[in-house]
Specification:
With 158 residues, this protein is α+β, with helices and mostly antiparallel strands. It is built from three helices and eleven strands.
Length: 158
Amino acid sequence: MVAWIAGLFLATRYFAGREEHEANPNTQVSSAHGQGYIEVQLAGNRQGHFVASGMINQLPVQFMLDTGATDVAIPASVASQLTLQRGMPVQINTANGRSEGYRTQLDRVKLGDIVLRDVRAVVTPGLDGDQVLLGMSALRQLEFTQRGGNMLLRQTTQ
């Protein structure tokens, strides 16, 4: 009986880890450095989304890259964990319709060795989950290309 319980426990842990890796294949983001640039290559998940582990203001978060989002969008629960100040209220358009969010500023956004400073963001109370949508207020500071299920992000350092 103990062996069966141990076997079920190990199988559950194994498949939970696999499922997490399939949802976020970029838990360990590696970077390549060249003359005058830093590159990060991300693999798409099963749904074709680019999800990656990163940091905001020195705290770990999970990003989903969203080229259709004007700003970085942060769920209210994540913003509370990051102790972000809620600034001026703004109307935002989401897939679920219009909503109200709050302006905020991110001192530091990090993805691999790419570091972005003073990034405009919106605290979005209606955004479910714990993924931060990495929108164009961050991505416009980078060059990016998508090819064959991968996305390459490049930051020039000169």
